[in-house]
Amino acid sequence: MPAWGKAGYSLVEVLVALAIFSLSAPGIAVGVSLAVRTTHSSANFTVATILAQDKLEELRARSGLRSGGGDSPRPGFSREWSIAPDSPETGMTRIDVAISWSDYESHSLALATVVNE
Description:
Layout: H1 11-61, E1 69-74, E2 77-85, E3 92-102, E4 106-116
């Protein structure tokens, strides 16, 4: 004699499980895509910070031979820098470095320092 109701799942249980999964799957997919997007943006922000800091350090190491300019140190990133002698005071030089890039939207980052001449 077969044991009815003791083995397997009923049709109602399967339908309830599918309903719960179909309601939660889009939320999980949105969460995963948001996490991937945030990770990518964070990585680009870190790269931009490193590129700006590298240029700032390079310009600080040069004494007297500084001039403004710009370049593209990496695909998708553009970098500009400016030099302001005797700013904020006489005998000091202000160095500004700005980086811009686009991933899902446009971003920019600016770093500045003052060097005593």
